[in-house]
Amino acid sequence: MNYFCKRNFNFGQVGRYVKNRKFSSLLSKEIKDHEIKQIGVIGAGQMGFGIALVTAHIAQLPVKVLDSNPKQIEKGSSFVDGLLEKDIVKNRITRDKATETKSRITTTTSISEFSTMDFIIEAIPEDVDLKREIFAKLDQITSDDTILATNTSSISITKIAAATKKPAKVIGMHFLNPVPIMG
């Protein structure tokens, strides 16, 4: 089994580290010097869009959310709108900042649009076969430098990474739900 992270951390910390370009201090040598400019999230549910929102807001990076179901994308996008509106009402964020954050989040139904991503986080249901299928597809279309992360809480990272030709670039990141509150 490979161990990539030097210590436990949450995505709020990741966002802050990416923003400050100190992200590499959390990772092992294999992926240490990888600069992250754009992030992809697979899965447009509450978890996927929560990850996208935290990334767009804290790390201030462009995020593309992928789901095969356009209705799920609409539902997830509405979820983000609702969270941002709550933060505006509670004076945690300005409307301009919310608009800026939302503008960093785009969506797609085509996995081919993930070919240029630097960092991809899979946030789909806990189905090992489905996760392996997605990671195998990502392995075919992404560069050798792309970091692939799974949001699994119970499936072996090694088992998921085995679906790729670059298992040293596969990491596990477990997010607590709801991500915007827990991150």
TrEMBL record:
<dbReference type="InterPro" id="IPR006176">
    <property type="entry name" value="3-OHacyl-CoA_DH_NAD-bd"/>
</dbReference>
<dbReference type="InterPro" id="IPR036291">
    <property type="entry name" value="NAD(P)-bd_dom_sf"/>
</dbReference>
<protein>
    <submittedName>
        <fullName>6681_t:CDS:1</fullName>
    </submittedName>
</protein>
<feature type="domain" description="3-hydroxyacyl-CoA dehydrogenase NAD binding">
    <location>
        <begin position="38"/>
        <end position="182"/>
    </location>
</feature>
<dbReference type="GO" id="GO:0016491">
    <property type="term" value="F:oxidoreductase activity"/>
</dbReference>
<dbReference type="GO" id="GO:0006631">
    <property type="term" value="P:fatty acid metabolic process"/>
</dbReference>
<dbReference type="Pfam" id="PF02737">
    <property type="entry name" value="3HCDH_N"/>
</dbReference>
<dbReference type="GO" id="GO:0070403">
    <property type="term" value="F:NAD+ binding"/>
</dbReference>
